[in-house]
Write a structure and sequence with these properties.
Length: 304
């Protein structure tokens, strides 16, 4: 078996997982997972063309995803988008036997001509890491599973011209509820989020206290998220929920504050200050400064 397995269809996924043939070619719901075939997947990277929403309950082993591993404890929803790489390491017989688990899988072709196709990229949680999964309450879990049952019923009965539209509408509804539940999770983790904000501030101060800024330039959102052990999307969403500002806006605000101090407390040229803050070109520094303050660096220095 190749080191990387490429799942291209619902049928291929179900065959790989030891499940029955799909009743719909573009969408699938299954409960539990046959572990008999999972031993073949241990240590293998899996690339998929499908969207997955997976519910895990209890300790379901270690799934590597991105840079992190996550030990599933309690009810958690995980989201996977096409093109992402997954890897399973564990004991499939122990991890998947008698565990409450379900997964919704659907192919992008299912939603291709729908409104959801234009909106699905706005559900940024498809690009979160597994340790940033959605931990749902019993009520929230039941809400999702009630909608799930409607999708299952729809494709188990005779498929007609209305079936696809109804299935897509219910998938869309699940995603909207998950967006609401993530908002709740951000809100209920205020203390944890505040700690991340403090670490972010310290990270920027440390970065500008070393020669990294001369070597690598302005810190990127990707860099900051990685240093904080967060996915870029989760990091950005967390900051927006907590502060109303994007991660990029926070970085720019930090830089502008430093620029103001250096403009007022040194006689260095504007270009030198721009270089010291990580700008490759002085014009980029001047443009950002004016966009944020309404004044050019020279105007700000002369007005104070």
């Amino acid at each position: 078996m190749p080191k990387t397995i490429h799942i291209k269809s619902i049928s291929q996924f179900r065959q790989l997982a030891g499940l029955t043939k799909p009743k719909h070619p573009k969408v699938s719901i299954d409960y539990g997972l046959g572990w008999q075939n999972m031993s073949d997947l241990i240590g293998k990277k899996i690339a998929s063309d499908l969207y997955f929403i997976v519910f895990k309950s209890g300790n379901c082993g270690h799934l590597m995803y991105g840079r992190n591993s996550y030990d599933f404890e309690g009810g958690t929803l995980l989201f996977f988008a096409p093109g992402q790489i997954m890897q399973y390491d564990g004991n499939p017989e122990q991890d998947f036997d008698h565990k409450e688990e379900w997964r919704l899988a659907f192919h992008p072709d299912l939603i291709r001509a729908s409104e959801l196709s234009n909106q699905i990229n706005s559900y940024s949680f498809f690009n979160y890491d597994t340790h940033e999964g959605l931990h749902v309450s019993e009520d929230e879990k039941h809400t999702i599973e009630e909608i799930l049952s409607k999708i299952l019923k729809e494709y188990n009965q005779h498929i007609d011209k209305h079936s696809q539209r109804i299935i897509i509408a219910n998938i869309h509804l699940i995603l909207d509820y998950c967006l609401r539940f993530y908002d709740r999770q951000f809100y209920t983790r205020t203390n944890l989020n505040s700690d991340i904000l403090s670490k972010f501030e310290r990270l920027l101060n440390t970065y500008y206290g070393t020669d990294k800024v001369q070597e690598f330039g302005i810190p990127t959102v990707n860099f900051c998220a990685s240093e904080l052990n967060l996915s870029t999307n989760y990091f950005s969403d967390l900051l927006r929920k907590e502060t109303g500002k994007s991660a990029q806006e926070h970085i720019h605000s930090f830089i502008i504050d430093k620029a103001k101090n250096r403009l007022l407390n040194s006689s260095n040229k504007v270009s030198e200050i721009g270089y010291s803050l990580g700008f490759e070109y002085p014009s980029n520094f001047s443009n950002l400064f004016k966009a944020k303050t309404g004044l050019s660096p020279k105007e700000f220095r002369n007005s104070s």
